[in-house]
UniProtKB/TrEMBL annotation:
GO BP: any one term: Golgi to plasma membrane transport
Keyword Ribonucleoprotein: no
Protein name: Lethal giant larvae (Lgl)-like C-terminal domain-containing protein
SMART domains: WD40
Biased composition (Pro residues): 1053-1064
GO CC, alphabetical: cytoplasm; plasma membrane
Region (Disordered): 1046-1085
Domain Lethal giant larvae (Lgl)-like C-terminal stretches: 645-1055
Short name of any one Pfam family annotated for the protein: Lgl_C
The organism's place on the tree of life at top rank: Eukaryota
Segments crossing the lipid bilayer: none
InterPro entries associated with the record: Lgl_C_dom, Quino_amine_DH_bsu, WD40/YVTN_repeat-like_dom_sf, WD40_repeat_dom_sf, WD40_rpt
Length: 1145
């Protein structure tokens, strides 16, 4: 084939990137998205959040930039079952699926250090710690409770046997035969008494036992026995209604005062028991119970009605078991016993209810003083609960309000975030709640967060914003100024008037987003500054997520941090399962840090919450017609909305417009910073019936993206097969192709449709392909260029079908403001199965892309002169089998290359620019990266990526950076696969990777101190002598944490390491200044070092003795194993010799 002189004279556009040494692919950073959460916990003292996953990873998050990744080892990849912070000594505890305890020390600078992995020989059912001592209680499957010393890192000698078996033996003489004969001695959970460390509540399937740790006995047993005729949670239609029943206990929570416990049961009921009365519950109720209804009582009248005519009484739907309970108190009363409380309930709903989590508001527990009794009381025996006190306790359990947090799926777990104190099981005075729920995929989880408690629960006097509200132990009787009282009442009234009913969303960190897909975009400095402007401003209906603690910084040993400022700025545009689009700042400038003196100020990537786009409010309005369903009401349509998805997003990096393509076929365009007073406030009817006006719908106050218009879905057009957005702001254009072969071109200024291409049924033939015009468009690309047949630079749309046939539409501008389509489109043949995004038009001289942006549009509007006519363009078009380069679009072919069969399927192509050169880069499904020169398409280099975790093509920018994804493993054909991680790579790793490594962290930076252990409070008023009594009638003072440690660890406890704080890292400048201040600090430091050295010596000796004992035990096991192995070997040799002798004989 002859090559023309015009092709021969084309410059080599890849001159500076044609060597293999010019390329170096590398992973820069992995961005985690936790769709596999199995456990969550928080440390209120430091503000850290820890997340455990199904693959054995533990992630710790704190202040901006603070992130630490831990891993369950030996072996790796084990599921995290339980996760807790030990607040007293700042350690993180984890139980894996092999039931081993992992202990990490979080108090030292740097990555938390794994101190010990310990096994208990049995499955672990629960564990619980206290902020006041350094032991953890571990419940085993056989019903035994072990204790573990977190300072000495060993199992302590103190243990609690299976108390329920002992209790059942004592209760064998019971006169009632129970219908429930299931195993009842399995431990479900444990709770330490919030105000008395000596009392441990152990929840068995049969009930709750209260253990006195010092006396080593059971002091209370709470077993629910429903008498014959009591409905319980199953109702009067239960087949066992006429015999005694014992519902299985499933959950436990303690009232902040310590005098009432709430026990959840498998039939969906919650039993409330007075700690002082184990004979009968105060109340048994469901979430739907009204007033003071007690389902443990027998209503003979109702029972007779149901039994006599069951057809007249509908059967109640079955309920979920109560899976988890949390009882929260607030600093909302001057009474030491506290004020209003909130019980958070997971489960208990009927099975046909909408998924959610229930919060129940109760009035204060403040019983009056009981009448004085003169009857003598035996020594050491608690006085019985007075009927008046019992009645007052029942009144405190009358529900004041109920709120259900709606979720996207059945709730699996929740976590409350206390404002400061870790006491009261970590449930006191929470400000937010994190809810983990199921998604469509098995084992996949979604996260939502809200403010807590709901605003309707927050009467003015209990609002956390009221700093004058008394704490639980506040004093009463202080004088009050009437004028201050009046002003406060007025302020509280105004506050209550401005209060909304729905709880506000808590802004989740990106690691908890349910991301389905992403788009990487490079933006210039002006666009970047526009996007990040006022990013921390408030948003109506949102509150910050309570995440803080620690400090992060980066070192620069290679001296490459100074080059970061020259890197281009990047934005990650993500679309989520909740029908929202979120923006992340992925600019490398966020990684700038110069040591501890200049810590990181932002996380990487950093969320831009004000750019959030919410599609649900628009899609749920059935009057807009953005769904193919024939909706008749918003409620009906809301149920169908759960099937809607965002299929793709398109972002214009200059105009900053964003287009969302929905599964239904709707296409919605959003614009940034539309003035609130611009445009009408009512919906307008547009000239084109395919379009719907949306500019009258404002976003939430604080959000910057507003809807402009949408293209309605239509069954005849089908779903969207391709979409392209020009990048020229209000002078832009939107092209949408459909599976039916239809094509719409929209002028965004109207908006108005300037082209409707309807497919015809006849066939046509090209030189290489025979195709029908009903083929769907797979690739749409805007460019400003000239053609061989039309040298004028015009705005053109390249439309490629499955067969490779490409129609090129030219747009013409007619003053004063009209754009039209010029004649019929030019037709050229391209590669078959065009790759979306694989069409490029380059300037033949410079290699620059001829984009349809502001510059390109301005060029197209200029008059054509002779110099412009001489300008040449190169059309690069990639398909499933190969790639072509053509001069002046429909002119002479420059080069052609085939991918080959061994590289895999081509997923994505990009023209990458570097140092005034460019090259074509192709990404394959097997992880290969192929580099071709331009325009002659010579393969110069092949690189390899690790196995990709998703079939989605990578998202790239023209500088060589790109992102790949790892999706949650799901069954074949799953319609939704959330991302587990995003991997940020680069093709030019020279002097790039260092700043992207995880920063150094100090998790203990800024951590406060653990508040003192809450003291016991009396059930009666503070003035009564009972206020000095302990719980369950004991006159003994509440136990301190160190006393419990001594009790559990035993007399032979090794000397624990000193509890002095670890040395914090210091900067070079500070250390230099300190060394030159004089000799006195040096002498003090030396003295302290000598003292600590002696103490450390004794500590090491103690630890060595403990380790020696463990090593001797391991050695004994090894010797036993060796002995057994030797015996087995001798037996095998004897058998072999016998066989040989038998054969020879």
């Amino acid at each position: 084939m002859f090559t023309s002189q015009a092709v021969k004279t084309l410059p080599d556009l890849s001159l500076d990137v044609s060597e293999s040494t010019d390329w170096e692919v590398s992973l820069l950073r992995t961005i985690e998205y936790h769709a596999d959460i199995t456990a969550v916990t928080t440390d209120p003292v430091s503000g850290l959040l820890a997340i455990g996953t199904a693959y054995g990873n533990v992630h710790i998050y704190g202040s901006p930039g603070v992130e630490s990744r831990l891993q369950v080892t030996n072996p790796t990849g084990l599921r995290v079952k339980f996760l807790q912070f030990a607040a007293s000594i700042f350690k993180l505890l984890c139980i894996d699926e092999h039931d081993r305890l992992h202990v990490w020390d979080c108090g030292s600078p740097g990555r938390p250090k794994l101190q010990r992995i310990s096994a208990f020989g049995q499955p672990v059912n629960a564990m619980v710690t206290s902020p006041s001592h350094s032991h953890v209680f571990v419940a085993l499957a056989d019903g035994e409770v072990k204790t573990y010393d977190l300072l000495c890192l060993r199992i302590s000698p103190y243990s609690i046997p299976n108390q329920w078996k002992l209790y059942e033996k004592k209760s064998l003489a019971s006169t009632m035969s129970l219908a429930d004969t299931a195993v009842s001695d399995t431990i479900i959970d444990m709770v330490i008494h919030p105000r008395d460390l000596n009392l441990l509540f152990v929840l068995y399937e049969g009930g709750v036992l209260v253990s006195d740790l010092k006396e080593q006995n059971t002091v209370r047993a709470f077993e629910l026995i429903l008498p014959p005729g009591a409905p319980g949670g199953s109702g009067f239609h239960s087949k066992d209604i006429l015999i005694p029943r014992r519902p299985q206990a499933t959950a436990l929570a303690i009232h902040p005062s310590g005098h009432i416990l709430a026990v959840g049961y498998a039939d969906g009921t919650i039993g409330f028991w007075a700690l002082e009365d184990e004979e009968k519950p105060l109340s048994l109720r469901t979430l739907d119970s009204s007033g003071d209804e007690d389902l443990s009582a027998v209503d003979s009248t109702k029972l007779d009605e149901v039994l006599s005519s069951p057809q007249d009484h509908p059967v109640e739907p079955p309920r979920e078991p109560i899976f988890k309970l949390a009882w929260s108190g607030f600093p909302n009363s001057s009474d030491p016993r506290g004020g209003d409380t909130v019980l958070t309930v997971l489960g208990g709903m009927t099975i046909d209810s909408t998924p959610g989590l229930t919060a129940v508001l109760f009035p204060p527990l403040q019983p009056p003083a009981p009448p004085v009794t003169t009857s003598p009381q035996p020594a050491g025996v608690a006085p019985p609960l007075h009927p008046q006190t019992r009645a007052a306790m029942r009144r405190s359990l009358i529900v004041q309000d109920v709120y259900t947090y709606g979720t996207m799926g059945p709730v699996q777990d929740f976590l409350l975030f206390p404002r400061s104190t870790p006491h009261f099981a970590g449930h006191y005075d929470p400000s937010a709640i994190l809810i983990i729920s199921d998604s469509e995929l098995p084992e996949a989880r979604t996260s939502q967060a809200f403010e807590f408690p709901p605003p309707t629960f927050m009467s003015p006097q209990i609002s956390p914003a009221n700093p004058d509200a008394g704490a639980p132990d506040a004093q009463v009787g202080e004088s009050v100024d009437p004028e201050d009282t009046l002003s406060k009442e007025l302020a509280l009234t105004m506050q209550s008037m401005s209060m909304v009913d729905e709880p506000r969303l808590a802004r989740l960190p990106p690691s908890l987003w349910g991301v389905l897909g992403e788009h990487l975009a490079k933006v210039d400095k002006h666009a970047y500054e526009t996007l990040v402007r006022d990013k921390l401003s408030s948003i109506d209906g949102e509150v910050p997520f309570p995440l803080k603690g620690g400090i992060a910084w980066s070192e620069d040993p290679e001296g490459v941090m100074k080059y970061i400022k020259y890197q281009p700025r990047r934005i990650l545009v993500t679309y989520l399962r909740d029908l929202s689009i979120q923006f992340l700042d992925a600019s490398p400038q966020l990684l700038l840090s110069a040591g501890l003196d200049n810590p990181l100020e932002s996380s990487f990537p950093s969320p831009l919450p004000r750019l959030t786009i919410e599609l649900a409010p628009i899609l749920i309005d059935y009057t807009l017609g953005l769904s193919l369903t024939n909706a008749t009401s918003t409620a009906w349509y809301g149920a169908q909305l759960s099937k809607e998805r965002i299929e793709a997003i398109y972002f214009a990096p200059q105009s900053l417009e964003c287009v969302a393509v929905m599964r239904s076929g709707a296409v919605i365009l959003y614009r940034l910073d539309v003035p609130a007073d611009e445009g009408p406030v009512r919906q307008q009817a547009l000239h084109d019936e395919e379009l719907v006006y949306l500019a009258h719908i404002p976003p939430r106050r604080g959000l910057r993206y507003s809807p402009a218009f949408a293209i309605k879905p239509h069954k005849e057009r089908g779903l969207v097969s391709a979409c392209s957005l020009s990048d020229a702001a209000f002078e832009g254009f939107l092209a949408v192709g459909y599976t039916s072969g239809s094509l719409l071109i929209v002028d965004l200024r109207g908006p108005r449709i300037i082209l409707r291409h309807a497919p015809s049924t006849h066939t046509s033939s090209g030189f290489l392909h025979k195709h029908t015009e009903v083929e769907p468009f797979l690739s749409l690309t805007w460019a400003c260029c000239g053609m061989s047949s039309d040298p004028a630079v015009r705005l053109r749309l390249f439309c490629s079908t499955v067969s490779g046939a490409t129609s090129i539409y030219a747009l013409n501008y007619e003053p004063p403001s009209t754009w039209t389509i010029l004649q019929s489109p030019a037709t050229v043949e391209g590669p078959a199965r065009p790759i979306p995004g694989g069409c490029f038009v380059l300037d033949a001289k410079t290699g620059m892309k001829c984009r349809a942006d502001r510059y390109g549009l301005a060029t197209a509007l200029q008059k054509v002169d002779m110099a412009e006519e001489a300008r040449k363009f190169i059309w690069v078009m990639a398909g499933g089998k190969g790639v072509r380069c053509t001069l002046n679009i429909n002119g002479e072919r420059i080069a052609k290359a085939e991918w080959g069969n061994k590289v895999g399927t081509i997923q994505h192509v990009e023209v990458v620019e570097k140092a005034d050169s460019c090259a074509l880069v192709a990404f394959t499904s097997l992880g290969n990266v192929l580099v071709y020169t331009l325009p002659h398409l010579e393969l110069v280099h092949t690189m390899h990526l690790s196995a990709l975790g998703s079939s989605d093509p990578p998202s790239t920018d023209d500088t060589g950076d790109f992102v790949t994804h790892t999706a949650f493993p799901g069954p074949p054909g799953s319609s939704i696969r959330p991302l587990l991680s995003t991997e940020l790579h680069t093709l030019f790793a020279q002097r790039r990777t260092g700043p992207y490594t995880l920063p150094l962290v100090d998790l203990a930076h800024g951590r406060g101190t653990v508040p003192p252990q809450p003291q016991p409070v009396s059930l009666g008023p503070p003035s009564v002598i009972g206020s000095v009594l302990g719980y369950i009638g004991s006159f003994a003072a509440a136990s301190a944490g160190d006393q419990i440690d001594k009790l559990l660890a035993g007399p032979d406890r090794p000397v624990p390491p000193p509890s002095k704080p670890a040395p914090r890292p210091t900067s070079i400048g500070n250390s230099g200044a300190a060394s030159s201040t004089g000799s006195q600090p040096s002498i003090s430091a030396a003295t302290a070092g000598m003292t600590s050295g002696v103490a450390d010596l004794y500590n090491r000796l103690g630890n060595a003795l403990a380790e020696r004992g463990e090593m001797l035990g391991d050695l004994q096991q090894s010797m036993d194993s060796l002995e057994q192995g030797s015996k087995n070997m001798v037996e095998r040799v004897s058998i072999s010799l016998g066989t040989i002798r038998a054969r020879t004989s």
